[in-house]
Amino acid sequence: MISVADAIQVILGEVQPLGSERIALTQALGRVLAQSIQATRDVPPFRNAAMDGYAVRAADVGTAASNAPVVLRVLETVGAGKVAAHSVSSGTAIKIMTGSPMPDGADAVVRVEDTQEDDGTVHILVHVDRDTHVRHPGEDMRQGDTVLAAGRALRPADIGLLASLGFAIVPVRRRPSVAILATGDELVELGQPLTPGQIFNSNAYTLAAAVEEAGAIPCVLGIVRDTPEATSQAFTEAFTADMVISTGGVSMGMFDLVRQTLTELGSVERFWEVAQRPGKPLSFGMRNGTPVFGLPGNPVSSLVCFYVYVRPALRAMQGLAHLHLPAVPATAAESVRTAEGVTEFVRCFLTGEPGAYLARVTGSQGSHVLRSLSLSDALLISPPQIGTIQAGSEVRVMLLSGEAATPPV
After folding, report:
1. pTM of the entire structure?
2. 203 lies in the same domain as 100
C-alpha cells in the first residue's frame, strides 16, 4: 500500500503535457497558453490624450488660475482615431478627445471641466505641468516584452491584452478528453425507475462536472455491467480518450473486474491501494501513454481521489504550473476521531478569515454520504500518526477551490 505523497509523485511522474492547437481568441478564455507571448508593438502605439480636454503647451498655461485664466485660440477639434491637421504653437490649443493622438507641439492636456470655451477661444482655469494627462508609447507594453508566459490559464484581462496586440488566433494546450466509466449492476441511469437494490448513477455526473471544472472534456460512456465481456468492451472504447477514469470494481469483490481487465488490455498498473481514508482502493496505471484511474465506487471516495490525484494530472496534461488544490492552516473547532495509520480527509466547512480559519466537520464521514462533501469548503488533513484531532489544535485543510504549486500532503 502506497502513501498519499508517493501516489501523487508516481502519477505526476507519468503524465505529460498534451500537444498544442491554435484557436480563435474568442474561444480562449480559461485555456492554457502553449507558448509565451511577446508584444508585437508598443502599447499604446503613439502619444495620446488620457482625458477629454485641450492639448496645450504647458509653458503657455503655467500661470493659469480660475481668477486669472489664460486665453488660447482653438485651432481645431480632433476626435478619437483622427490626427490633428495643425501643430500647437504658442498661444494656441487643440480640442482633443480621450485616446486621440497628441498634436505636434503640445505637451499637456487640460481637462475640459477646467476650461471655458468662448467663440473660438478657450479660457484655461488651471495650470498644468508637462505630460499632464498624456499617455506615452509603450507605457502598457514595449515591443518585444514577454507579456504572458507559457502555462498560463487565460483570464479576461489576458484576452483584452492579446486583443490590444492584434492576436486573433492564440496557441493553447489541447484540452484532455476524459472517458468516464461507471461500473456496477446496481446502477440505473437518470430517468429510469429504480427497483429494490438499485441506485442512480451519480458518480458519472459528479466526475464529469469535476473533469470540466479542471479544464478537460468529459466523455461519459455509460454504465458498465459486471461481466468480463462488458468490462473489456467498455475499456477498449474508452482508450480512444486522453485519460480513462472508472468508478467501482477495483476492490476485492467477486465482481470487481476492472483491474484484471485493464491488465488484459495492456495497462501497466503503477500502484493499487493508497494509505488514505476515504479512497483506499485506488488503482493507477498507464497504457500506451494514457493514464488510467480506477477510482472507488463510493461517491465521496471517488471525488476525494479525483481532487487529490486526477485533478493535478489533468492540469499537468494542460501544461499548468500550479497543479494542486491549496492546503492552508486552520484551527479545529471540535475534537475529531480519525483513523491511525492512514491519511484521512475529513469533510469540513470553514468560518473566519484566511490565516485564522476555524474548521468544523460537516456531518457523517461515511464514504457514501455525498451531502457532507457538498456542504464542505475543505478537507481537513489528518496525518497517519494522529488518532484524534483535539479541539483547538492547529490543522491543515485542503481547500476545494484555488491552485497551489505544492501537493497538499
Report:
1. 0.85
2. no
